[in-house]
Amino acid sequence: MHRPRFILLAAAPLLLGMSAILPAVAPQSHAAGYSIAFLPKAIGNPYFDTAFNGGKMAAASSGDTVKQVGPTAADASGQVTYIKSLIQQHVNAIVVSADDPGVIAPSLKQAMSQGIKVVSYDSDTLPSARNVFINQASTEQIGRVEVQILGRELGYKGQIAILSATSTATNQNAWIGFMKKELALPKYKNMKLVTTVYGNDDPALSTTVAQGLLTKYPSLRGIIAPTTVGIKAAAQVVDVAHKKGKVIVTGLGTPNDMRKYVKNGTVPVFALWNPGNLGYLAEVTAHNLVAGTLKAKVGASYKAGKLGMRTIGANRVVLLGPPQQFNKSNIDQFHF
Predict the structure, then answer these.
(1) CA gap 120, 126 in Å, rounded
(2) Which of 1, 87, 113, 244 has the largest CB neighbor count within 10 A?
(3) pLDDT tens per residue across span 74-127
């Protein structure tokens, strides 16, 4: 008789001293369903909390057990500690948002060698170190749309800056690459990217960095922050400095964080996907991989609950959908 086994998408570190006495056995089975742990870049981030809530919703339908753990600040070495702890727990799957793909890849490969499924979400690790990546939206669309929004708001002229998360973040770097390609188009010839700075997805540091931008570049017209922490910090700084309308802020944020700044005009338009659906899709994908109802192969299709059918695309990537733009006319329709 089949007994369901545990999956984890990323969990709290165990007592490392126990590792020496734990036997190297296969992941255990549990009657309650698979155990799935989410390992975000950092805990306490509303964006990742919303994604985790989506994972809990999916788990409630499948009988899985989910939990979320991780470092309190974005730190790849901290993620490695958690991954090693999960291996010692003999989990069935780890789902992780990579802070630094190269740093965490060896420990993820170790997990895979022991039969643990690895699903990355939000920010990919090396393809060789995971089974499937749940991509929140087309990387190109995300990068280009942020520049397109700012270009419209600025009349396609003026100095702009980018306030990103960490310099090693896979997703931010990929988006920034497409931002630069968009900026190279003729219509942006009068817009100049003066710098890219990093707030490490830390509210205090992001605030300090945003303040530094206003001080160093007094003619700055716009800030793009492709991170929910960064866009909130930048909006607060511009608002407090009474530069609303003089410096336009856009990027990727959550409606609940940005509602005030959209309504007061500091952030006329910003973009994002639904992070709850991202976490939901990650949980469903991990469940199917461990259950054996989904093979991590290009072209494989599966039913993702309320999100309908999904197909694994090139490089074993599953796409959630296109980014959503938020403004005064629609922001009150969204609550996450």
Answers:
(1) 9
(2) 87
(3) 999 999 999 999 999 988 899 999 999 999 999 999 999 999 999 999 999 999
User: For residues 202 and 71, what is the distance between their CA atoms, to the nearest angstrom?
Assistant: 12
Non-local CB neighbours of 199 within 8 Å, separated by 6+ positions: 163, 164, 165, 205, 206, 207, 208, 209, 210, 227, 229, 230, 233
For the chain, what is the radius of gyration of the CA atoms? 20
What per-residue confidence (pLDDT) applies to 26? 42
Residues 235 and 231: their CA atoms lie apart, in Å, by 6
Tokens of 97: 């948002």
Tokens of 260: 């005030």
Q: Count Cα neighbours of 247 within 13 Å in the Cβ-side half-sphere.
A: 27
Kindly report, residue by residue over 265-316, the tens digit of the pLDDT. Answer: 999 999 999 999 999 999 999 999 999 999 999 999 999 999 999 999 999 9
**pTM for this prediction:** 0.76
- Dihedral, 304, 307, 310, 316 alpha carbons, nearest 10: -80
